[in-house]
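Data availability (excerpt). The following record was deposited with the supplementary files.
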Amino acid sequence: MVIRALNRKIKRLEFKIKYKKYKFAENSFLPFIEFEAQNCKNIIVDKSVSFRQGCALRVRSSGILEIGEGTAFNNNCIITCREKIKIGRHVLFGPNVAIFDHDHDFRGNDFEHEFVTDEIDIGNNVWIGANVTILKGTKIGDNAVIGANAVVFGNIPENAIYINEVKNKLTLYK
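Predicted structure:
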């Protein structure tokens, strides 16, 4: 038990030294997740934020990531930020949630695709179920519940329950 606590303190210190230009509150701990910060503007992780195994944070290309107090991520959650992702206080994420504030612009004829970005804003006291994907341009209001397996885009009002109906649709692009 003592060795485990000492190892955790060493990992926390290594993490703070490596990423000292970003703000991580004392009770939030990230060393056991995959973490990438490439040329990003700012990362703020408030106090008592927790991550389970297999989570990944990737902040790139002048991205801004803010995670509010008391937010909890279950196993295998992925956040990839190129513009801005803001997550409020006391948000609960089920396992396998993916959050992307960008898409690939795939309409070109070569493999040098650009990114299309838009901010994501998740309110306070939101509950996000298992296997949810949150796409660019999404705003989720306070106290909302997002059902399992949902693909979320656009505006979800506060105090709403959001689920996807299962429909198959084929659309051709030009």
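Summary of structural features: The CA atoms of residues 27 and 133 lie 27 Å apart.
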